[in-house]
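ping. complex inputs:
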Amino acid sequence: MTTLDLIEKNQLGKIVAIETNLLPLKLIEMGCLPGNEVYLEQHAPLKDPMYLVIDGCHLAIRTETAKNIKIELI
Amino acid sequence: MSKTINVALIGNPNTGKTSVFNALTGLNQKVGNYPGITVEKKQGSCRLNHTTKAHIIDLPGTYSLNASSMDESVVIELLLNKNDKDYPDVAVVISDIENLKRNLLLFTQIKDLEIPTLLVINMSDRMVGKGISLDIAQLEQKLKTKIALISTRENKGIEFLKTCLLDYRSLSKEGCLDITKIDEAYFGNLQKVFPDQSLYKLWLVITQDVNFAKIQRKKVQDATEYKTQPIAHLKRLQQKETIKRYQFINQSLKETYTVDQSKATDYRSKLDRILIHRFWGYIIFFLILLTIFQVIFDWSSIPMDFIDESFSVLSEYTKTNLPPGLFTNLLAEGIISGLGGIVIFIPQIAFLFLFISVLEETGYMSRVVFLMDRGLRKYGLSGKSVIPLISGTACAIPAVMATRNIENWKERLITILVTPFTTCSARLPVYLILISLVIPEGKFLGMGYQGLTLMGLYLLGFVMALLSAGILNKMLKIQSKTYFVIEMPNYKLPLLKNVLITVFEKTKSFVVEAGRIILAISILLWLMASFGPGKEFNQAEEIIMSKAKVESFSAEELENKIASYKLEHSFIGILGKSIEPTIAPLGFDWKIGIALISSFAAREVFVGTLATIYSVGSDREETIKNRMKAERKPDGSLLFDLPTGISLMLFYAFALQCMSTLAIVKKETNGWKWPLIQLFSMTLIAYLSALIVYQILT
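pong. complex structure:
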């Protein structure tokens, strides 16, 4: 198990748990929920922010936010 | 008998909600503000058939009913308030075929409010390219609604949507989620206290205050006191609610929405690989900006010259063809000159809004946000600050409003405070006229000096914004959680109709808003320049005549002498003279002083003011530029020489001369503290930099 900020390109992850109190509700509502699949589309320079696809939804978040999302690689 | 039904358009950002609104209403729309707040309110009308009209309100885009910004809270306040005159008879949820799952979250929330709800699935033109197929009949059954599959790009399905609206009474009001399933104890208890209320509405009211703890707003209902649970628990419940909703959505889409990946073409990743490349991404962004500024300078110069000429001809025509008198003078010297000062902006503003709306429509703006976030964070800004900083080149007012989607309060506040440094379109005419007066026409490496100076001034604005952001970042001690979430929408070709309507509406509102101020100030200025106290003003002719060597002047020279003597002793002249000692070290005379004073209402008044001041008493038909060129200092040298010109440009680059910006900053920051700090420090910076530059250059 790892956290989302460490995901690399061409890896597929599955969200295991989220720190509800540290994540904006908006992110949760965009599909950042346990059980959903996630992969990295692209890093911005210096690896931050991250352009992710979570459950088919394309969005970008900062790595400090991604640290609060636990994933397992599949 | 004709009747009107209220229709509310609701949807996530980037679903083409505005396209649907434009397709339904065309130009029958009006943009205003919600009372008391600066959220844009768009409404329009549409004829459904011979007897029924729809009053359509386009609500701000939102991802869910759990609002996290002022724009979003407008949606929920309307939908919870049955007494509002805009309360919808039917809610239309706009979704896009590619992101249907995420879009449906909002749909299920709206449906639970027990309002007749219609689902519009937009962008059907993309189904083939993406390999998507949809079983509409079955999905309608599962979602308990009617679905209109449309394509605003191909103009398909709009008529069908209208017939669905006519038939709104047949829409089911049944909800999607049994909210008690989330936490039976909590909601059971709530129901006991408020037996007659809808549980979901109560829940929304309770949680809204959680989201809005820091922002003052009127209470939606009295139930807000019912907060027996700690916030952390409420957040857990919200998460549980979201999970339940997605379970329902996944269930509904399972057999009805299928994607055949083998048929899907993906140009999005290919474009992304170039446009947000760690090197090429920045080069492309810089080239785009360069092109925009070059185009604004080149393309708008022709219509602007034409407008300038036309207004001076018009003013002259009025003077010669109307009976002479006070009214003719007011018309020719005050009103027409003042109006010319507004109309001359139209080409540039239209071009700026054109580019900005194209960048937004295509989805490119989100990529810029993504690219810039890390770099801007060093200065206490967010990637999302890019949008205010770029739209600030059009006008600081929409730019300050565009900071609303920055989630972090400190980043948002800094963005608001530094945005007025970006070169807004009101500065442009000041720059243009000064550049053409003091910068020579030569070329350097194929680029004209004049164009380069303008580009330099734009860069100066951005650099100053960044520098002060960096300083503010160090000084402000504000703790706020750093959330940054941005959707990366798919690329789209901009719809011409949307772009044109945006350009038209924004330009119109700018001209009308700014026009009122400029017109009022022009008239006031003319009055103050045409009247004066005491005998110095009223007996100007005798005083000049009695002076020595009068005989050596020609009649025309004599007339000019009298006119300028009168101006000097008019009310405005006295005012200008009184501040002259303060601004003389910057290289400004009392006439420029008058322009500075009137510019504090709005800087675009500068050119108009000088036009008014210089045209009072002048008989010849002259453009503003030629009149300014002819101005001399008492020692006979040119008034607008290089040091004065540069000093004046710097003053305008840094000073906050815009009442509307102050007003909007006051609204967005909830008080006078920040706008006053902003006004004071920007004026100080402007004064000091103009002083230093002028003293060095002379």
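The mean pLDDT of chain A is 92.
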